[in-house]
Design a protein that fits this description.
The complex is a heterotrimer.
Chain A lengths: L1 H19 L5 H27 L14 H12 L2 H11 L6 H24 L26 H34 L3 H10 L7 H34 L11 H27 L8 H32 L2 H12 L3 H13 L7 H4 L2 H28 L14 H24 L5 H11 L2
Chain B lengths: L11 H28 L1 H4 L13 H7 L4 H4 L14 H8 L10 H9 L5 E2 L12 H6 L4 H5 L16 H9 L19 H10 L29
Helix pairs in contact in B: 5-6
Chain C lengths: L5 H6 L6 H12 L2 H10 L13 H17 L9 E2 L15 E9 L2 E10 L2 E7 L12 H10 L8 E3 L2 E3 L1 H18 L4 E5 L5 H13 L4 E4 L12 E2 L6 E5 L10 H10 L9 E6 L4 H5 L2 E4 L2 H15 L11 H10 L4 E5 L5 H13 L7 E2 L13 H10 L4 E5 L3 H4 L6 H7 L2 E6 L4 H5 L2 E4 L8 E4 L5 E4 L12 H8 L7 H12 L5 H11 L31 E6 L13 H5 L13 E3 L1 H7 L5 E7 L2 E9 L7 E5 L31 E11 L19 E3 H6 L3 H4 L21 E6 L8 H9 L7 H5 L8 E7 L6 E7 L8 H5 L5 E3 L5 E3 L9 H4 L7 E2 L10 H6 L12 E2 L5 H13 L12 H5 L5 E5 L6 H6 L4 E2 L11 E4 L1 E3 L9
Parallel strand pairs in C: 7-8, 7-15, 10-11, 10-13, 11-12, 15-16, 16-17, 20-24, 21-23, 26-37, 27-36
Antiparallel strand pairs in C: 2-3, 3-4, 5-6, 5-17, 9-14, 18-19, 20-25, 21-24, 22-23, 22-25, 27-34, 28-29, 30-31, 32-33, 35-36
Helix pairs in contact in C: 5-24, 7-17, 10-11, 10-12, 13-15
The chains are: A mainly alpha, B mainly alpha, C alpha/beta.
Chain lengths: ~450, ~230, ~950
C-alpha cells in the first residue's frame, strides 16, 4: 500500500514537473519559436487572402478546390485518432490507451481547429459565411439542406464540441493535482478555477466515471459520422473519382490511419525529449503501429476497389480517370500516395520495426505525407479532367497555397507546444490508477 | 496540505446550476438583440423622413389638391421605373402659383440653369434587385400597399422595411395586396360602396379581371429567384 | 531604375499654367518610368501579388474584413441621390431602352446596326435586320465597337508635335499651308486614307482634289487586298461551292450575308449544298467544308489552270487525285455551282476563276460582279509616296483613318519619311504610332458619335447616325474635309444632310431622309450590277514561281485585331482565336509534319527569316495546315496601341514587303530552343473518344436519321431521388444547330457585351480563369494532316436535374418554374462547389475583383439590367434572363402570353447562321420545340441524367461519293 502511494507520488511528480518546472527548457523554446514563425506565415497568407481574394491561390475552372479542401480533409482525418483512442479503446477496455489518450485528444482538438479554418477561408466571400447557418433572417431564407457542405458544418462543430468537453472532463482530476502541487499562489488559484473545485471525493469520482463513460459512448458514433459526412462532399457529386459509394468507410479508415500516424509523429520525439519511456512504453508504440497497419490495409483495399470498379463498371469516364491518375499530369502524386499508404505500412508487419521508435517515426511521417497526397489525388486529379476535354485544365499551386498549408502546420504545432507546457500531456489520474491496479 | 487553490465555496454548486440557465439566457438575448437591431427603424429608416432640397409635401399635393400619382410619376404604368418629375413638371404650376416662394428657389434655379435637382432617395432597393412598377401597377397592386398613405405625409418616408422577407410575404400570398385596377392610384383604401360599384362595373366578368393571369404566369413563379434577381 | 509612383512623378511637374503643365506632363510621358508607373496604375487585370503590401495595411484590412462578417447583417444603407431631368426628352421612358439604326464601317464597307441606348448612353450593338450586309446578325468587330467607343485610351485632344493643342490652332496653321498649296495646285500635297465608300465624304474628297488637282490620293488598307476585283456571290443559289482559299463565311464585308444564305442551303435534304475548300491555313469556312484540301499557296495558284484543263478534258498528271471527281461534280452542277477566289490570290488566278465561272454558266446566277463605283479611288503606291516624302517633293501629307507607320510594309521607311514632312496631319481614333510621327494629330470621332454614310458590300447606301455626344474633343472627317474646302464652322450633320439633299433632289426629301435615318439604309439604293465587264483573256499558263523551294510565308490579317486597329480592345483580345483558342497574342502556325521534319516543337520560339528580315515568334503546331508553309497574323507587336494593346505578340509587318504583302516562298525558320507559354482557353484538342459533337454523312443520315440519339443511353426522367419539377407555364429551352454553326464565336463576344462580363487579362486566362459565359469548343478529329474541324458552342445547359443546384449550401443557384437554372449573385458565398459539380464547366468564378470600378467611361457601357458581379461570386449564362423578364413584363402588361421569337438571347441575336434558337419548349409550335423533335436533336452528356434544356442538332456532312476512297 505504502509503495502504491510512492508509486502514485512518482507519477504525479514526473508528469506535473513538465508543467510546473520553470523556466521552460531550451528545446521547447526552440520548437515553439519555429512553430510560431509559421503561425505568422499563416497570418500573412490569410491577410493577403482577404485583401485580394481566393484568386491568390492556383485554383481555377475546372479545379475549384485544391489545397484548401485537401488541407481541410487531411486535418479532419488527423483529428480522428484522439476520440478513437479515448472513446472506442476505452469502451473496448484497452488499458494501454491511458498514457496516450490525453495527448491524442489534445491533438484532435487542435487538428479540428486547423481543419475548421479552411472551409471558412476557402469561401469567395468569407464575410457572409454565416449564411450557411440556419437562423431567422430578414431575407426569409434558409440553408440548402441537400448540400453536404451544410451537413459538414454541423458534423464538424458537433465533433469539435464533444471532443473539447470530453478532453476537459478528463483533465479535471489532473488540474486538481496541479493545483495542489503548484507553488505560487496565483498559479494554484488559476488551476483551482479550472479544476472546478475537485475534491477527490468518492462521490466526485463516481460521477466523473459515469460522465466520462457516457461521453465516450456519445463520442464513439461521431468518430464514424464526421468523416463519413466529409466524404459525402465528394460522394454525392457526379465527378468521376468523387462519385463513389465506397467513400464513407474508406475515408474513416484513412482518417484513423493518418490520425495514428500523427500521434506517433508527435509522441515519439516528445517521449524522448521528456524521458517518458517508462510511461509511453514500446508496447504503446507497438499497439498504435498495429492499428495503423490494420487501417492501412483497409485504405489499400479502398484504392484497389476504386481501380476494380473503374474497370468492372465499364464506365468510360471512370476508366479514363483511373488511367489519368496513374499516367496523367499528376501521376507522381498518385504513386507517392501508393508508396506511402500501401507500400510503407507493410513494414509494420515486422515486430522489430514496430518497436523501434526511430523507424516508426519515419514511417509515420511518410504516412502523413501519403495521406495528404491521397486527398490531393482525390480532389485535384478528379477535377482537372472531368467530362468535356475542352474544359480540362491544370492546377499549379502558388506560393500562397504553400504558405497556407505551412501556416496551418504552424498553428497546429504552436498549440501543441503550448499544451505540452501548460497542461499534463499524460493523464495523471489514469496512469496513477493503472500503476496501482497493476499491483497485486 | 492547505489548499488555497480551493477557491470555490459550497454555494458555487448552486452557481454552477444557475450558470447553465444564465448561458442559455445570455445567448438568447444576444440573438434577440441582433435581430431587433437589424429590424430597428435606425437601420430600416421606416417612418424617418429624409432631408430634401425642397420640402415637397405629398400631403399637400396628393391629399390636399388631389393630384393623381401619374401626374408626376409618369412612367409607373409602362416602365420598371415609376419616374421622378422633371423640374419642368414642377414649373407647369409653379410658374404661376407660388412664383416667388423662397422655398421653391432651388426649383427655379434648376429650371433656369438647367442643372437638375438632386433628391434624396427614400425607397432605395439594392442594385441586384430588379423591381418593376408597371408589373405591380397593372396587376392591381395599389401604390399605398408599399408606399403607405402618402396623402398623409408632409415629408415622404419609408412605410415598409423593404426587406426581402417583406417582398416574399406578399409574393407568396399576393391575393391580399391585389385590388381593382381602378383603385391602384387612390391614395386611401376604397370603402365598401366603391368596391361594390366596381364589382357592378365588372358584372359578368370576374370580380378581379387583373387576377386573370395568362398561362405563362404561375403563382409559384412569383417566388422564383429570377422574378427579382438577374 | 527606381520605379516611381504617379504621385511623385506629378510632384516633379512644375506648378505652372495650362500649356506649360501639359508640356511637362508630356515630357514625362516619354520617360520610361512614367510608362512604367502607368502600367502599374492601370493593370490589365488584378495580379496575385499584393503590391507594396505593408503588414500594418493588410492587418487593418484583415481586421476590417473579419469585422465585416459581423456587420453585414446590421449595416446602415447609405442614402443615394435621385436626379431627374430638368426637361425630360419626349420619347424617352426612364428604365426602357431605345434603339437607333446606324452603321458600322470596317475597311470602308458598312454593316447596318441597331444600337441599344439607355437614357442616352449606347450599351449594346445588334445587327440591323433591314440591312443587306447584316440581316440582323453581327460580327465580332461590330460587337466590339461599343467597347471601342468607351475606350479610355482614345485620343482626347488635338496634338501638335505631341503637345496638347486646339482645333483653332490647327485651322490657323492649315490656313497658311493652304494658300501655298492653292498656288501650285497641291503638287507637294498628298492624302493617305483608309478605305472610304462614304458618298458624301468621297464627294468632298473630289472637291478637294478639284481645288488641289495635283495632290496625290492614296488608299491604305493593310488588311485587305484592294487589287482584287470584288465578287458578289449568292451562296444560297449554289448547290456546289468550291472555295480556293476564300474564307467567304467568316471574312470580308459580305460574310454575314454569306453565312446566313449558306446555312439556309445547308439543311440536310435534297437541296443540301456541298462545299469544297482548298486552303493553306484552316479557316472557319474550311471547317464547314465537306471536303477540305490543305495546299500551299503556290499550289493553289496553279489550281484554276488545272481545273480548266480538267474541264477541257485534257489529262494533266500534275493534278491531285481528288481533282477529277471534283470537276465532274462542278460540271454536273453547271449553272448552280460557284467557284470563289481567295482575296489574296494573284490577278492571274482571279481572272482564271472568273473565266471558269463563266464557262460553268454561273455568272449572273450564283455570282455577279459589282459595278466599278464600289472600288476605291486613287492608287496604293505607298512606296512611291515614301520616296517622294524623303526627297522632299512631298512636304504636306494628310493621313486619315490609317496608321501606316505601323502598317506600312517593312521595306518602306515610312516613319523616317513622315518625320521629314514639314506639315503632316494624322486623323484617327487613337494617338498611335503614326500620330507620334506627325506634326499634327486630330482625334477622330467614333462612328457612334458622328453623322456619316457608307456603302455596303453590295452598294446599299447606309446612314451613320450618332448615339451620343462626342465623349472627347473629336473632329468628324467631314468637318476636316470641309476645313480643307475653307468651310468652317461646319458640323457633320449639316454636311451629310445637305449632300443628300443635293443627291435626292426631291421635294419630298425630308420624309425620305427621315425614313433613311430611321431604317439605317436608303431604300432601293442597292447598285444593280450592270453587265459584268468582260474578263481578261486567259493568260498563258504561268510557270510555278517556286517549285519545291523551301518554306512559304503567309501573312494574313488577324481574325480579331484585324490589321492591328483593334489591338486596344479587351473584348477582342480575350476572344479565343477560332482555330487555336489562343488569346492576347499571335503565333506562327505550322503543319505538324513540317514541324517534325524541321525538328521544331509546339510553343517553341523561332526566328522567322524572310527576305533578309527576321522576327522572333512562338510556334503553334496547327493540325490541318498545308505543309511547307508558316502563317503569321498581322496586328500585334504594337507600341502605341494603348494600355491594353501595346506590347502584345510579335509584329508581322516587319516581314512584309511592298511587292509581297501576303508573303511568299523563301522563308527560313531557325529554332531558338526557348519555350513560350501561350494563353489559351482550350488546352486539349480532341474529344478523347467521347460523343460530344455528333455527326454523320448525308447518306448515313438518310438511312438512320436518329443516329445522334443512339449514342449512349439517356436515363428515364424518374431516375432521380428528388421530387419531379413541374413546368406548367413557359419552359425555356435552346437548340444549337451544329450543322449551321461556323464557329465564328460572335456569340461569345455578344454575350460579353450584353452581360457585363469583365475582361480578365492574359495572366488570368493562363491560370484558366476566363469569364466567357458561352464558349465555342473546337475539336480536331481524324488525321493531323486532314482533320475534321468541329465547333460546338457551349452555354449553360440549364439542366432540369442540375448537379450544381443540389450542392450549393446557401441555395444561391436554384431552379425556377420556367426551368431556368438561376444564379443569384448576391446570395453566393463562393464555395465553388457548383462549378466543381458541373459536368459542362460552364460556370465562371470571380477569383479576384475583375470588374473595373476605376474607369468612368467603362461604367457607361454596362447593361443596367444585369447585375455587376463582385469578387468571390460565381456567375454563368442566364439565357439572358433580363431579356426574358423584359418580354414577360410587356406580355403581362398587355395581358397576353409571350410570343415565340419575342425573346432572343444575345448569342442567338448575333449569330449570322441562325444556329442558336431559343424559345418555349412547352409550346409545340415554337421553333425550338420543332427543332427538339428533329431526329438530329441530342443532349450533351445526357447519359448523366442532367436533362439539359440546351440541346444540339447533329452535324451532317455531304461528301462527294466519288471521293470516298481518295
Amino acid at each position: 500500500m505504502n509503495s502504491a502511494v510512492k508509486e502514485c507520488e512518482r507519477v504525479n511528480e514526473q508528469i506535473s514537473a513538465i508543467v510546473l518546472k520553470r523556466p521552460p527548457r531550451r528545446g521547447w523554446l526552440f520548437g515553439f519559436g519555429i512553430s510560431f514563425c509559421f503561425l505568422m506565415v499563416l497570418n500573412l497568407a490569410i491577410g493577403c487572402l482577404f485583401l485580394k481574394g481566393v484568386g491568390i491561390w492556383g485554383i481555377n475552372i475546372p479545379v475549384g478546390w485544391a489545397f484548401d479542401i485537401t488541407n481541410f480533409v487531411w486535418w479532419i482525418g488527423i483529428g480522428h485518432a484522439g476520440t478513437f483512442i479515448s472513446a472506442i479503446l476505452l469502451l473496448l477496455h484497452q488499458d494501454w490507451r491511458t498514457s496516450i489518450n490525453r495527448f491524442a485528444e489534445a491533438m484532435t482538438i487542435f487538428a479540428v481547429a486547423c481543419a475548421g479554418m479552411f472551409p471558412l477561408i476557402h469561401l469567395g466571400r468569407p464575410q457572409v459565411f454565416y449564411w450557411i447557418l440556419p437562423y431567422p433572417n430578414t431575407m426569409d431564407l434558409w440553408p440548402q439542406w441537400r448540400s453536404p457542405l451544410v451537413w459538414d458544418v454541423f458534423a464538424v462543430f458537433t465533433y469539435l464540441t464533444v471532443s473539447i468537453v470530453f478532453w476537459y472532463l478528463g483533465l479535471i482530476p489532473d488540474l486538481a493535482t496541479l493545483r495542489d502541487r503548484a507553488r505560487p499562489l496565483w498559479l494554484r488559484r488559476l488551476f483551482g478555477v479550472f479544476a472546478l473545485g475537485w475534491r477527490n471525493s468518492i462521490k466526485h469520482w463516481k460521477r466523473y466515471e459515469t460522465a466520462y463513460l457516457l461521453l465516450a459512448g456519445l463520442a464513439t458514433p461521431l468518430v464514424i459520422s464526421v468523416h463519413s459526412v466529409v466524404s459525402f462532399d465528394f460522394a454525392v457529386s457526379l465527378i468521376p473519382g468523387w462519385h463513389s459509394t465506397i467513400f464513407p468507410p474508406y475515408f474513416v479508415a484513412g482518417a484513423i490511419f493518418s490520425g495514428f500516424a500523427m500521434v506517433l509523429t508527435l509522441i515519439i520525439p516528445v517521449r524522448k525529449f521528456y524521458r517518458l519511456e517508462n510511461l509511453i512504453t514500446d508496447t504503446h508504440l507497438d499497439n498504435s503501429a498495429k492499428v495503423m497497419l490494420a487501417t492501412g490495409l483497409l485504405v489499400a483495399f479502398g484504392y484497389l476497389n476504386e481501380i476494380f470498379t473503374a474497370w468492372y463498371s465499364d464506365e468510360e469516364f471512370d476508366a479514363y480517370l483511373t488511367l489519368n491518375r496513374m499516367l496523367g499530369y499528376y501521376a507522381w502524386v498518385y504513386w507517392l500516395m501508393m508508396a506511402c499508404n500501401v507500400g510503407v505500412p507493410q513494414l509494420l508487419w515486422f515486430r522489430k520495426l514496430r518497436r523501434d521508435p526511430t523507424s516508426l517515426f519515419v514511417i509515420s511521417l511518410l504516412i502523413n505525407l501519403g495521406m495528404w497526397a491521397e486527398r490531393f489525388v482525390i480532389i485535384v486529379t478528379s477535377l482537372h479532367r472531368d467530362f468535356l476535354p475542352s474544359s480540362w485544365g491544370i492546377f499549379r499551386p502558388t506560393i500562397w497555397d504553400w504558405a497556407t498549408l505551412m501556416g496551418s502546420l504552424g498553428l497546429f504545432f504552436t498549440l501543441i507546444f503550448v499544451f505540452i507546457r501548460l497542461l499534463p500531456m499524460i493523464s495523471i489520474s489514469e496512469v496513477r490508477r493503472a500503476a496501482t491496479e497493476k499491483r497485486p | 496540505m492547505k489548499n488555497d487553490g480551493q477557491i470555490f465555496p459550497r454555494w458555487c454548486n448552486t452557481l454552477a446550476w444557475a450558470s447553465i440557465a444564465g448561458l442559455i439566457l445570455m445567448g438568447g438575448t444576444m440573438i434577440c438583440l441582433l435581430a431587433v437591431v437589424t429590424r430597428s427603424p435606425y437601420l430600416t429608416r421606416v417612418d424617418i423622413p429624409l432631408e430634401q432640397p425642397v420640402p415637397f409635401s405629398h400631403e399637400h399635393h396628393v391629399g390636399g389638391m388631389g393630384i393623381d400619382c401619374r401626374y408626376c410619376h409618369t412612367t409607373s404604368e409602362i416602365s420598371p421605373f415609376a419616374g421622378v418629375p422633371s423640374v419642368e413638371t414642377c414649373m407647369t404650376c409653379h410658374s404661376q402659383v407660388w412664383k416667388d416662394a423662397p422655398m421653391l428657389q432651388p426649383i427655379r434655379d434648376s429650371f433656369l440653369s438647367g442643372k437638375p435637382v438632386a433628391w434624396n432617395r427614400v425607397h432605395d432597393l439594392p442594385d441586384f434587385v430588379y423591381f418593376d412598377h408597371s408589373a405591380h401597377v397593372n396587376k392591381g397592386v395599389a401604390c399605398r400597399e408599399c408606399h403607405g398613405r402618402v396623402d398623409r405625409m408632409p415629408l415622404i418616408s419609408r412605410q415598409e422595411t423593404l426587406f426581402m422577407g417583406w417582398c416574399l410575404a406578399c409574393h407568396r400570398h399576393p391575393e391580399g395586396a391585389l385590388g381593382p385596377r381602378e383603385a391602384v392610384f387612390t391614395p386611401r383604401p376604397p370603402d365598401q360602396s366603391e368596391i361594390r360599384s366596381w364589382l357592378q362595373a365588372h358584372a359578368g366578368a370576374p370580380a378581379r379581371p387583373e387576377m386573370e393571369r395568362p398561362p405563362s404566369v404561375t403563382a409559384q413563379r412569383l417566388t422564383d429567384c429570377s422574378a427579382c434577381h438577374r | 531604375m527606381t520605379p516611381h509612383s504617379l504621385t511623385d512623378l506629378q510632384k516633379r511637374i512644375p506648378a505652372a499654367r495650362g500649356a506649360l503643365l501639359w508640356k511637362s506632363l508630356d515630357q514625362l510621358a516619354n520617360t520610361p518610368e512614367f510608362r512604367e508607373a502607368i502600367e502599374r496604375e492601370f493593370p490589365v487585370a488584378a495580379d496575385e501579388w499584393p503590391d507594396a503590401l505593408s503588414r500594418r495595411r493588410f492587418l487593418i484590412l484583415m481586421g476590417a474584413s473579419l469585422a465585416a462578417a459581423g456587420l453585414t447583417s446590421c449595416s446602415r444603407q447609405p442614402i443615394e441621390k435621385l436626379v431627374p431631368y430638368v426637361k425630360q426628352p419626349e420619347d424617352l421612358v426612364p428604365g426602357k431602352p431605345l434603339h437607333f439604326a446606324s452603321s458600322n464601317v470596317l475597311g470602308g464597307f458598312a454593316r447596318g446596326v441597331l444600337v441599344e441606348s439607355h437614357e442616352g448612353r449606347p450599351t449594346k450593338i445588334e445587327g440591323n435586320p433591314g440591312h443587306p450586309a447584316s440581316l440582323g446578325a453581327t460580327d465580332v468587330f461590330m460587337q466590339a465597337a461599343i467597347l471601342q467607343l468607351y475606350d479610355p485610351d482614345r485620343s482626347q485632344t488635338v496634338l501638335h508635335r505631341g503637345f496638347a493643342s486646339t482645333w483653332d490652332a490647327f485651322l490657323a496653321a492649315l490656313l497658311q499651308e493652304e494658300n501655298e498649296w492653292a498656288r501650285d495646285g497641291g503638287t507637294r500635297l498628298a492624302f493617305v486614307t483608309g478605305g472610304v465608300t462614304s458618298p458624301s465624304l468621297r464627294y468632298h474628297f473630289r472637291r478637294i482634289s478639284e481645288r488641289f488637282p495635283n495632290a496625290r490620293w492614296i488608299v491604305h488598307e493593310p488588311a485587305c487586298n484592294l487589287e482584287t476585283p470584288r465578287v458578289l456571290p449568292s451562296v444560297d443559289r449554289a448547290g456546289v461551292v468550291l472555295s480556293l482559299d476564300a474564307d467567304f463565311l467568316a471574312w470580308g464585308p459580305g460574310m454575314l450575308t454569306n453565312a446566313r444564305t449558306f446555312a439556309r442551303r445547308r439543311e440536310p435534304g435534297n437541296t443540301m449544298n456541298r462545299l469544297y475548300v482548298v486552303e493553306s491555313v484552316p479557316s472557319l469556312t474550311g471547317a464547314m467544308a465537306d471536303h477540305r484540301f490543305p495546299m500551299t499557296p503556290s499550289d493553289i495558284v496553279r489550281l484554276p489552270e488545272q481545273i480548266s484543263a480538267e474541264m477541257r478534258g485534257a489529262t494533266n498528271p500534275a493534278a491531285p487525285p481528288w481533282l477529277p471527281p471534283l470537276v465532274r461534280d462542278l460540271r454536273k452542277h453547271a449553272g448552280d455551282s460557284l467557284i470563289l477566289a481567295g482575296e489574296f490570290l494573284p490577278d492571274s488566278a482571279q481572272n482564271e476563276i472568273r473565266l471558269l465561272n463563266e464557262e460553268l454558266g454561273n455568272v449572273g446566277r450564283t455570282v455577279t460582279y459589282p459595278t466599278e463605283a464600289l472600288t476605291f479611288p486613287g492608287t496604293h503606291a505607298l512606296t512611291e509616296l515614301a520616296s517622294q516624302m524623303l526627297s522632299g517633293s512631298i512636304n504636306a501629307v494628310f493621313l486619315l483613318d490609317c496608321n501606316p507607320v505601323y502598317t506600312a510594309p517593312a521595306d518602306i521607311p515610312f516613319a523616317e519619311a513622315l518625320r521629314k514632312v514639314s506639315f503632316s496631319v494624322h486623323h484617327g481614333l487613337y494617338a498611335d504610332e503614326t500620330a507620334e510621327a506627325c506634326r499634327w494629330h486630330l482625334p477622330d470621332l467614333h462612328a457612334l458619335e458622328n453623322w456619316g454614310d457608307a456603302l455596303a458590300f453590295d452598294g446599299t447606301i447606309s446612314i451613320i447616325q450618332p448615339l451620343i455626344e462626342p465623349l472627347y474633343n473629336g473632329i468628324s472627317p467631314h468637318v476636316l474635309a470641309a476645313a480643307l474646302l475653307k468651310q468652317w464652322p461646319a458640323n457633320d450633320y449639316d454636311i451629310v444632310r445637305s449632300y443628300w439633299r443635293g443627291i435626292l433632289a426631291n421635294d419630298d426629301f425630308e420624309s425620305l431622309w427621315r425614313q433613311a435615318v430611321h431604317d439605317g439604309v436608303m431604300a432601293g439604293s442597292v447598285s444593280t450590277p450592270a453587265a459584268p465587264p468582260p474578263a481578261a483573256p486567259r493568260a498563258p499558263p504561268s510557270p510555278n514561281p517556286n517549285a519545291g523551294s523551301g518554306l512559304e510565308l503567309l501573312i494574313r490579317p488577324d481574325p480579331h485585331v484585324y490589321d492591328g486597329r483593334f489591338a486596344n480592345n479587351g473584348w477582342l483580345q480575350e476572344l479565343p482565336k477560332p482555330m487555336t483558342k489562343i488569346v492576347w497574342e499571335n503565333a506562327a502556325h505550322i503543319a505538324p509534319a513540317t514541324a517534325e521534319r524541321l525538328g521544331l516543337h509546339h510553343a517553341e520560339e523561332v526566328d522567322l527569316i524572310y527576305r533578309g528580315r527576321s522576327i522572333r515568334a512562338p510556334l503553334w503546331v496547327l493540325p490541318g495546315m498545308a505543309e511547307n508553309c508558316v502563317e503569321v497574323a498581322l496586328g500585334y507587336g504594337r507600341t502605341r496601341a494603348g494600355k491594353v494593346g501595346s506590347g502584345l505578340g510579335f509584329n508581322s509587318y516587319q516581314l512584309r514587303t511592298a511587292d509581297a504583302p501576303w508573303g511568299g516562298p523563301g522563308l527560313e525558320v531557325r529554332a531558338t530552343g526557348r519555350m513560350h507559354r501561350f494563353a489559351t482557353t482550350q488546352e486539349h484538342n480532341t474529344m478523347a473518344g467521347r460523343d460530344l459533337v455528333r455527326f454523320a454523312d448525308l447518306t448515313m443520315y438518310r438511312e438512320t436519321p436518329h443516329f445522334a440519339q443512339q449514342h449512349g443511353h439517356t436515363p428515364a426522367p424518374d431516375q432521380t431521388l428528388y421530387p419531379p419539377f413541374t413546368y406548367d407555364g413557359n419552359a425555356w429551352g435552346m437548340a444549337i444547330d451544329l450543322n449551321a454553326c461556323t464557329g465564328c464565336s460572335v456569340c461569345t463576344i455578344a454575350c460579353q457585351a450584353e452581360n457585363n462580363i469583365p475582361v480578365v487579362g492574359r495572366d488570368q486566362v493562363q491560370r484558366g480563369r476566363e469569364m466567357h459565359w458561352i464558349r465555342v469548343d473546337r475539336y480536331f478529329r481524324g488525321t493531323v494532316e486532314r482533320p475534321d474541324i468541329l465547333h460546338q458552342p457551349v452555354p449553360c445547359m440549364h439542366c432540369e436535374n442540375a448537379p450544381c443546384e443540389t450542392v450549393c449550401p446557401v441555395a444561391a443557384t436554384l431552379h425556377d418554374h420556367e426551368g431556368l437554372n438561376v444564379m443569384v449573385y448576391n446570395r453566393c458565398i463562393g464555395t465553388r462547389y457548383c462549378s466543381n459539380n458541373c459536368p459542362y464547366k460552364v460556370r465562371r468564378f470571380n477569383f479576384l475583383s475583375y470588374v473595373d470600378h476605376s474607369t468612368p467611361t467603362l461604367k457607361l457601357q454596362r447593361n443596367p439590367n444585369v447585375t455587376v458581379r463582385s469578387r468571390g461570386v460565381m456567375e454563368k449564362c442566364t439565357y439572358c434572363i433580363q431579356r426574358i423578364n423584359f418580354a414577360r413584363m410587356n406580355a403581362r402588361n398587355q395581358n397576353r402570353s409571350i410570343r415565340d421569337g419575342e425573346i432572343i438571347p444575345a448569342c442567338a441575336q448575333a449569330c449570322p447562321a441562325e444556329a442558336i434558337v431559343f424559345g418555349n419548349i412547352n409550346d409545340p409550335d415554337s421553333r425550338v420545340s420543332k427543332l427538339r423533335t428533329d431526329p438530329r436533336n441530342y443532349g450533351l452528356l445526357a447519359e448523366l441524367n442532367t436533362r439539359p434544356r440546351t440541346t444540339y442538332l447533329a452535324k451532317i456532312f455531304n461528301p462527294n461519293p466519288e471521293l470516298k476512297n481518295v
